[in-house]
């Protein structure tokens, strides 16, 4: 599949000063791929630098990217899990785009380390916001992700205490350790100790959380993200 011609664009959106997000699209249906790429090029902060039919066709040296938008099912015989792990080994974040009704495949993709899963049938603005979030390293935990995780009886419970869940919900939502300490009335060093224990518990449960993005994923999987956070102390 050939790459679409690049649209005229500046590297910086001067009015908002937003950096351009470099995106690769892996989709083996050419009409869908070209149409989706042209749709995204309407947005000044998104640059589709590569369109490919398979992961093997991608060349991150010639065309470095911030995110790969990957079709869940490709026609080359590869599995989504293998594709995600191959991209992860190259340090590339992945957002899954799918039309499939396959909770097991979505569970497998979530466990393999994708940042999110969105449907091709979702409104354009939701797809664009998901790409922006994932390209910035944020987890996109939509309804398909939540339903698949909820249906996974094999997802091990990390056994977090109520206090650890509170700390995780704050920290994984983007708060810094100092801010979490302020919100909970703890010292910064105590918060750091809590975070270390939380990481250890997830590792022991077979669900490692080495980075803050990993912690966000675990919190989303366990339903801790999205609830009301404690009010800021005066």
What is this entry, summarized?
This protein is α/β, with parallel strands linked by helices and 234 residues long.
Strand order of the largest sheet: 4-3-5-6-7
Count of alpha and pi helical runs: 9
Content of β-strand: 5-15%
Which secondary-structure class do the elements indicate?
alpha/beta
Task: Give the tally of β-strands.
Answer: 7
Instruction: Please tell me what the overall shape is.
Output: globular
Indicate the low-confidence ranges by residue numbers: 4-16, 227-234
Separation of the first and last Cα atoms: 58 Å
The radius of gyration is: 19 Å
According to CATH, what is the class of the largest domain? Alpha Beta
* Percentage of residues in helical conformation: 40-55%
CATH architecture of the largest domain: 3-Layer(aba) Sandwich
Write the CATH homologous superfamily of the largest domain.
Answer: Response regulator
Largest sheet: 5 strands, parallel
Mean pLDDT: 80
CATH fold naming of the largest domain = Rossmann fold
Count of structural domains: 2
What oligomeric assembly is this protein in? single chain
* Order of helix and strand elements from N to C terminus: EEEHEEHEHEHHHHHH
Describe the structure in your own words.
- The protein is of the alpha/beta class.
- The chain has two domains: 12-150, Response regulator (Rossmann fold), CATH 3.40.50.2300; 162-221, Arc Repressor Mutant, subunit A.
- The protein has nine helices and seven strands, in the order E-E-E-H-E-E-H-E-H-E-H-H-H-H-H-H.
- It has helices spanning 30-40, 80-89, 103-112, 124-135, 143-150, 162-172, 177-184, 188-204, 212-221, and strands spanning 12-13, 18-19, 21-26, 46-52, 67-71, 93-98, 116-119.
- The chain has a five-stranded parallel sheet, with helices on both faces. It has a two-stranded antiparallel ribbon with strand order 1-2.
- Helix 7 crosses helix 8 (188-204).
- The longest helix is centred in the last third of the chain and has 17 residues, at 188-204.
């Amino acid at each position: 599949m050939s790459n679409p011609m690049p649209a005229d664009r500046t590297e910086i959106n001067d009015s908002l000063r937003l950096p351009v997000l470099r995106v690769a699209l892996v989709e083996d249906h050419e009409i869908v791929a070209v149409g989706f790429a042209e749709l995204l090029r309407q947005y000044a902060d998104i640059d589709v630098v590569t369109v490919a039919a398979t992961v093997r066709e991608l060349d991150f040296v010639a065309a470095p990217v911030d995110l790969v938008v990957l079709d869940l099912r490709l026609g080359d015989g590869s599995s989504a899990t293998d594709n995600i792990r191959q991209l992860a080994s190259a340090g590339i974040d992945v957002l899954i785009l799918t039309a499939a009704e396959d909770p097991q495949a979505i569970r497998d993709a979530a466990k393999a380390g994708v940042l999110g899963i969105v449907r091709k049938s979702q409104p354009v603005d939701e797809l664009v916001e998901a790409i922006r979030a994932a390209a910035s390293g944020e987890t996109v935990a939509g309804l398909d992700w939540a339903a698949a995780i909820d249906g996974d009886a094999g997802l091990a419970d990390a056994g977090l205490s109520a206090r650890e869940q509170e700390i995780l919900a704050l920290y994984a939502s983007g708060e810094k350790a100092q801010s979490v300490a302020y919100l909970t009335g703890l010292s910064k060093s105590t918060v750091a100790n809590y975070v270390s224990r939380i990481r250890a518990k997830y590792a022991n449960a077979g669900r490692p959380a080495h980075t803050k993005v990993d912690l966000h994923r675990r919190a989303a999987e366990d339903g801790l993200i999205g609830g009301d956070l404690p009010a800021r102390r005066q």
